[in-house]
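Lecture notes, part 5. Sequence design as translation. It can be helpful to think of inverse folding as translation between two languages: the language of shapes and the language of residues. The source text, in structure tokens, appears below.
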């Protein structure tokens, strides 16, 4: 396959362009970026929004006030 036709993506960590095909670390460009991403998850720098946290109401005896 011609190199100009290979699908390129941006590494989510360093934003460098990286080949999708044949990349053992995809979507990352390297082992280091993959580990940086894992470290960020462990340190809770990434969060998945919890819809239940948006509602803030007082509860008294199991009933909303």
């Amino acid at each position: 396959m011609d190199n100009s036709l290979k699908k390129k993506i941006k590494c989510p960590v360093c934003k460098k362009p990286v080949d999708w095909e044949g990349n053992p670390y995809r979507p990352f460009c390297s082992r280091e970026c993959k580990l940086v991403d894992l470290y960020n998850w462990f340190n809770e720098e990434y969060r998945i929004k919890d819809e239940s946290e948006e509602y803030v109401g007082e509860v008294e005896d199991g009933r909303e006030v």
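The translated text above is only one of many valid answers, since several sequences can fold into similar shapes. The first strand starts at residue 8 and ends at 10.
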